[in-house]
Amino acid sequence: MSTKLSTLYETDYYTWTRETARLLREGRLSEVDTEHLAEEVEDLGKSERRNFVGYLSQSFAHLIKYGYLATRYPDNARRWTRDAAFFLKEAMGVLEENPGLKGELQSLLKKSWETARGEIFRKFVDDFPREQDIDRIGIPARCPWSPEQVLSGEILPPEPEIPGPR
Questions:
Q1: 11 inside domain
Q2: Which tens digit of pLDDT belongs to each residue from 48-101?
Q3: Does 160 reside within a domain?
Q4: Which burial class, exposed, middle or buried, applies to 20 when counting CB atoms under 10 A from its CB (0-12, 13-18, 19+)?
Q5: 137 falls within a domain
Q6: DSSP class of residue 68?
Q7: What is the spatial distance between Cα 63 and Cα 54, in angstroms, rounded to a whole number?
Q8: Across residues 120-125, what is the average pLDDT?
Q9: Percentage with pLDDT > 70 across the chain
Q10: Structural domain containing residue 146
């Protein structure tokens, strides 16, 4: 491995990526900065994991809003339902492209739920001035759904009907 390439990783990441790709395409593997390349490949996997958790936590946050705040904010219920479905679909798309994440599904649900619950606490500070207030209205501390329920989509409420002209 070239010391120059290793230094380039620290000083000019863009050029490092271009040079590394060129060396790989040319089959000059002995010149590749393998240590940093291995880090980058691992980070690609972490990025997919973060995408899944991000989408799923957004879906969970909208489900919490729908389930626990819709009576306070009835005009938002329809939007929250649609947003929950949209973000769940996005999460399932990431999972479909990265089936290896299924082996971590239980811990990913836990992380996603905790993130969603924290987001509700931060965004609805007027409704929940203390974190205990979230517990008081019944928002569970742990994800209430099994991986199977999440994967099947049965966590989604039915979309509210729009009253039509009579």
A1: no
A2: 999 999 999 999 999 999 998 898 899 999 999 999 999 999 999 999 999 999
A3: no
A4: buried
A5: yes
A6: I
A7: 14
A8: 82
A9: 92
A10: 47-152
Q: Structurally, how many domains does the chain consist of?
A: 1
Query: Per-residue pLDDT for 17 more than 80?
Result: yes
Tokens of 73: 């904010």
In contact, 128 and 72? CB cutoff 8 Å: no
Would you state the pLDDT for residue 161?
A: 58
| Cα angle, residue 50 at apex, residues 44 and 55 outer, rounded to 5° | 130
Tell me the DSSP string of 39-51: HHHHHHHHHHHHH
Alpha-carbon span 104 to 99, nearest angstrom: 10
Distance CA 100, CA 146 (A): 18
14 belongs to a structural domain: no
In a 3-state reduction of DSSP, which class is residue 91?
Answer: helix
